[in-house]
Amino acid sequence: MRVVIVGATGDAGAALLRRLWAEADLDLVGVARRIPEPVGIRRDVEWHAIDLVAEAAADRLADVFRGADAVVNMAWRVQPSHDARRLFRTNVLGSREIARAAVAAGVGSLVQASSVGVYSPGPKDGFVTERYPRRGVLRSSYSRHRALVERMLDQVGSDYPGLRVVRVRPALIFDRTAGARIGRTFAGRLLRHRRIPLVPAHRRLRLQAVHADDVSEAYARILRTDVRGAFNLAADPVLDSRVFGEFFHGVRVPLPAPALVGAAALSWWSRLQPIDAGWVHLALEAPLVATDRAATELGWNPRRDAVAALREMVAAVGEPRSEDPDRSGGVRHRT
Fold first, then answer.
1. For residues 179 and 313, what is the distance between their CA atoms, to the nearest angstrom?
2. Tens-of-pLDDT digits for all 335 residues of the chain?
3. Which of 101, 270, 276, 309 could staple 174 via S-S, CB 3.0–4.6 A?
């Protein structure tokens, strides 16, 4: 099976590359803006450098996609958060070019990395299924872009029923790589001490998380089946102020939503941290999700709980980020 991963050098793409590398019958193709150094697992990958927003990107992508059984779109930017136009071009218009190329190349399956951020505001005391409305959280550009891409995929699936379209909607993705990346930010300098004296508390500040390797396992199972539609991915427990307070040995301090939003906005405009206030709105408004469909149809269950994933991420804060996605240092054997 020939699988093309667009965005294969990003955090999520690299995690998926590690997982699929273990499948000896897969021919892996990576697409990125720049071809990475051929070390570790990357030596076994066919690489193509394509900028999704460049002229004729769809034509170049179609050439790469021809003969592929599946295309997995992991390409997504959240930075630079101060350049909304650039994010829209890459995330929304770039995803459109990938879908167009997949149709033109006659690819059998298009698997889109989406997010629980695609959902409309919803409950924090219950769990929604994949059928919940997908209009996004309007005050989050990330959420709006996710909703736009999924609406585009709805149309593609309707117009081309022969193309199997799957959307993967994970909660926050934590792992060691994410911790190393966060370590370079202002927030990373705080987390490096493994202690936050004052933990903000709000009744709607309840989040879900999942480990990157568990997300990659879901992708691997999707590629081996003929499922269509969307799959929520998250691990227990729900992360709230009580869990964060115990984890970071901090005291919970109740704060109203405007204070949380204002603090994020002020620190973002001051460039103390890279997360704009839209992410706080998303955290407060996005619903909690159920993962029953992934368990039933994929046989998927997370191997790490959300606290373990958080622990791994925080432990890696301050570590240098490795450019080699091969954690094993092994040699791939084909059978």
1. 4
2. 999 999 999 989 999 999 999 898 999 999 999 998 888 888 889 999 999 988 889 999 999 999 999 999 999 988 877 888 999 999 999 999 999 999 999 999 999 999 999 999 999 999 999 999 999 999 999 999 999 999 999 999 999 999 999 999 999 999 988 777 665 554 555 566 667 888 999 999 999 999 999 999 999 999 999 999 999 999 999 999 999 999 999 999 999 999 999 988 888 888 777 778 999 999 999 999 999 999 999 999 999 999 999 999 988 886 655 544 555 444 454 43
3. 309
- Phi, psi values for residue 237, rounded to 5°: -85, 170
Kindly report the backbone phi and psi dihedral angles of residue 253, in degrees, each rounded to the nearest multiple of 5, phi listed first.
Answer: -120, 110
CA distances from 76 to 37, 42, 214 (A): 21, 20, 19
Strands 207-211 and 235-239, bridge-based pairing: antiparallel
pTM above 0.85, yes or no: yes
DSSP letters along 113-132, please? E--GGGSPS--SSSEE-TTS
| Residue 118 φ then ψ, to 5° | -75, -20
First to last CA, the chain: 14
From residue 6, alpha-carbon distances to 66, 101, 134, 254 in Å are 14, 12, 24, 42
Amino acid at 42: R
**Contact (Cβ atoms closer than 8 angstroms) between residue 209 and residue 169:** no
What's the rounded Cα separation, in Å, for the pair 314 and 306?
Answer: 12
